[in-house]
Amino acid sequence: MKDIDIYDFDKTIVPFDSGSLFCGYCALHYPWIILLMPVVAVGAILLVLKIISFTSFKRLCFIFVPFIPLEKAVKGFWDRHEHQVHKWFYERKRHAVVISASPDFLLEEIHKRLGFEDLICTRHNRKTGVIIGENCRDEEKVRRLYELYDKESIHVVDVYSDSLKHDKYIFSLGENCYHIVDGERIPFEFKKVYAQKN
């Protein structure tokens, strides 16, 4: 049985939401994509009105991908932001599985740079920017983990995330849980935190 640690990515390993920040980076460096923003704005309104799901909204967020040099943009983005990775992540001692809702085309570059073992994230069509399958959040994170590993073949030791709301499902797998607040790792007991939330 393999001992592993699970990490969320955004606001956990880094202090920002990488997908949103990447959109801002691209708007700054490739300003013509701003012409597509009204489509995203309409999507945001429909999301607030609960007419479309979050996944449907997220399908719109990266519609600019066909109009930029994606690989160059991703490398430029991480050249600028790699130094913001929290230092404690470099001290990891076990097999690390990073599970994130952010796009694969964005996180695969930082995966290579940081050298952790496994990356699970939201799959996107690199030509269109459209999500393939489900957004990798909430219960989908656990489903994707067990798509990669047989449940009986792994033992989850530590789980790290900034989101108590969305990451209850991966926290439930861990022997130890750490809530990330302003980059600090705060240990907590799963049963105590979630006892009143079931």
Please describe the topology of this protein:
Blueprint: E1 2-7, H1 18-29, H2 37-48, H3 54-61, H4 70-81, E2 95-103, H5 104-114, E3 118-122, H6 139-148, E4 154-161, H7 168-171, E5 176-181, E6 184-188, H8 190-194
Parallel strand pairs: 1-2, 1-4, 2-3, 4-5
Antiparallel strand pairs: 5-6
Helix pairs in contact: 2-3, 4-5
- Poorly predicted regions are none
Tell me the strand percentage band.
Answer: 15-25%
Class computed from helices, strands and strand pairing: alpha/beta
Helical content class:
25-40%
Structure described in brief:
This protein has 198 residues and is α/β, with parallel strands linked by helices. The protein has helices at 18-29, 37-48, 54-61, 70-81, 104-114, 139-148, 168-171, 190-194, and strands at residues 2-7, 95-103, 118-122, 154-161, 176-181, 184-188.
Can you walk through the features of this model?
By secondary structure, the protein is an alpha/beta fold. Helix content is 37%, strand content 20%. It is built from 8 helices and 6 strands; from the N terminus they run βααααβαβαβαββα. The protein has helices at 18-29, 37-48, 54-61, 70-81, 104-114, 139-148, 168-171, 190-194; strands at residues 2-7, 95-103, 118-122, 154-161, 176-181, 184-188. A 6-stranded mixed sheet has the order 3-2-1-4-5-6. A hairpin with a 2-residue loop joins strand 5 (176-181) and strand 6 (184-188). Helix 2 runs antiparallel to helix 3 (54-61) and helix 4 packs across helix 5. It is globular and about 50 Å long. The two termini are 30 Å apart. The mean pLDDT is 93.
